[in-house]
Sequence to fold (294 residues):
Amino acid sequence: MMADENLELLLNVGAIVSEGPSWDETNKVLYWVDIDGKRVHIYDLTTKKDISIEVGQYVGSVVPRKSSGAVVAMQYGIYFLNTEDGKLTFISNPEKDKSMNRFNDGKCDAFGRFLVGTMHFEEKEPTGALYCLEPDHSIKTLLTDVTISNGIAWSPDNKIMYYIDSPTKHVDAFDYDIESGTISNKRIVVKIPDNCGIPDGMTSDSEGMLWVAHWGGWQVSRWDPYTRKQIDTIHVPAKMVSSCVFGGTNLDELYITTARRGLNEKELRNQPNAGGIFRIKVNVRGVPTYKYNG
Fold:
């Protein structure tokens, strides 16, 4: 499958799993994580330099923090990360009794809460959950019986939250109360077709459409959650497409993370840029990456 002509390879890093991208609009940097490499990366679009911080644990996601630095969700809980010196400060671990789990994808809502989910290490059992870390550092459970907690996104008016538990092969929608950070009225709005991989990370745009990364599917797909129809596809020259986020000065560039995990030697030869990060300019603005407000 050929890549779209205007898709560019931004970072040829060959990560086992590059994941969890988020855009810091203030500093014009792209955060992303190398899960298996146990590193948080910060790519500066101005200097074109990518620096990495070793965190010593499997790391699922990173989001910018309004005060300074970032918040990271890792194998053993949620931490503040000082991006200047690499120091980690523990915040919370609601699953300290679940050694078979680790934290995975996470994102902040417009209020500044950090929603983040967990997953079973072997990706087999529904032992995970979706949590909400409030600005006061208290934490509550939004969903249970999750196998691989992945993509989270909101509608532009913040009244709908979208969520992916990857093995289900669909995107769920919930009514979202931005004042309380609670969800209700679960329904399915996207069903990933057979032979297109499974849904992984996700973001949304200013028109209310969803952009879904296909793990094992060579693509990012764009969906209308109201008509439940696929309306566009970005073909990626890497089979394992893990996530995506909008960034750039005008929020009209889509940054796409990919992986090498699970590929055999022949596949790796045919996908030399797998594990890299790609960028493509699109004709719509994205919803911004909100920062943690605590």
User: Anything to note?
Assistant: The mean pLDDT is 96. Helices lie at 265-270. The longest helix spans residues 265-270. The two ends are 44 Å apart (CA to CA).
